[in-house]
Amino acid sequence: MTLIKSISGIRGTIGGAVGDNLTPLDAVKFAAAYGTWLKKTYQHRPNIKVVIGRDARISGSMMQELVVNTLVGLGIEVVSLGLSTTPTVEVAVPLENAEGGIILTASHNPKQWNALKLLNHKGEFLSAKDGAEILEIAEAESFDFADVDNLGEVHINDAYFDIHIDEILNLPLVHEEAIAKAKLTVVLDAVNSTGGIAIPLLLERLGVEVIKLYCEPNGEFPHNPEPLKEHLTDICEKVVADKADLGIVVDPDVDRLAFVAEDGEMFGEEYTLVAIADYVLGKEPGSTVSNMSSSRALRDVTEKHGGTYKASAVGEVNVVQMMKDTKAIIGGEGNGGIIYPELHYGRDALVGIALFLSHLAEQKISVSELRKTYPSYFMSKKKIALTPQIDVDGILAEMTKRYSSEDITTIDGVKIDFPQNWVHLRKSNTEPIIRIYTEAMSQEEADSLADAFIKEISEIAGI
User: Fold this and answer.
1) Which of 210, 233, 267, 394 has its CA 20 to 30 A from that of 7?
2) Which GO molecular function annotations are given, in alphabetical order (predicted)?
3) Same structural domain for residues 240 and 344?
């Protein structure tokens, strides 16, 4: 069982011992730390407001009651969205003029996990500095709760799915009429979470026929909820059996997006962002950003449209910051996370679906044909376990020295860009391992490159 505290929030497995797992006491303590930080940060404001939503995990209702009433005990006003999605909460925070937001979700982790993801007043994930302050408050347990006459209030607002969809449909690049005219049929796998509520609402507004697969928001995940090919056999088969135009897959909190082509083959989660960026850049010139472990295909597509591509450190908050710094018009992560600043600075599968379908309807080709229009790269993701005594930073420094003649980036581990492929070496913050990501023109080449670097690191480490 596990409890992980970080600058972006707290996550862990439900039950067990306090401090070792995500128990009710841990949830209350961390919610109190966040509320205390908000009161300190916005002490000049007469009232503090927080938007809260959750995915459909079995533990979600319990966690929501604990977190909501902890904030009420601090004298904070709560706008409760109930069952929601991560991007819906992110959209709601600024629209509610709230000081912050909390999403109760462990994203793609299995059902025994849950988490508190924390947002600032813009509906964006907290900075490292702000997250560190909250961790200090939680550690010190320096809370000052409100007296009985100054308790907070709870307001229920179940309109935000519709509001979020309205905001998406109002975007100039979302072409409702073209999508409706295409008469698309889609199979949706929402892994029995809140995507099963929100996405059918969006697709119906777009005139798309929806075949629901695992769309009951009961938190009983029918397969591993991470939207990877090896977990998605059912939808791949159903797309073919039902003669659908495509399949749509999301994770439990609906910030990651993957597509299945009409032939039952995965479009490739790395290519979700590539295709959507191709569409956006074809309408409006600009730059793009993804993290360092994402496919080189985004760079290729960006340069095809005359734009500039930049790679950030891994992590949504890092991608967002670089997008702001470079005024990127589209960006995200290779795990299927789409960030479209025209709507908001957060990964959003719903806006990704609307933009992708607009692209598909305009091109008037099948999903498999669309995929063939992009360069084919293949990725390998491996890791090497080291002993705690080994100096991981020293190993990465040695690798930087050995490959100093290549195009190297060291803002997040070591990334070495070779002419035809690349390798990214990242150390784990929680265990003595080095993660090794590679990309090449074939799967065999990507795997071989990763194995070669594993061998080289092993020799340096003496293992």
Assistant:
1) 394
2) magnesium ion binding; phosphoglucosamine mutase activity; phosphomannomutase activity
3) yes
Q: pLDDT > 90: what percent of the chain?
A: 89
Which residue in 8, 59, 80, 107 is the catalytic one? 107
The dihedral region occupied by 81, where left means phi > 0, alpha psi between -120 and 50, and beta the remainder, is: alpha
Domain range for 433 is 378-461
- Tally of structural domains, the chain: 3
Residues 263, 204 contacting (CB under 8 angstroms)? no
Using the structure block, give the residue that is written with the tokens 């420094």. 397
Sheet holding 433-440, edge to edge: 378-385, 433-440, 422-427, 414-417, 407-409
- Tokens in use for 350? 């719903």
Residues of the chain below pLDDT 70: 1, 429-430
CATH code of the domain in which 438 resides: 3.30.310.50
Give 291-309 as a DSSP string: ETTS-THHHHHHHHTT--E
* Dihedral Cα 114, 118, 119, 125, nearest 10 deg: -90
9's CB contacts (< 8 A; 6+ apart) are: 30, 115, 116, 117, 118, 131
Look at residue 126 and give its three-state secondary structure: coil
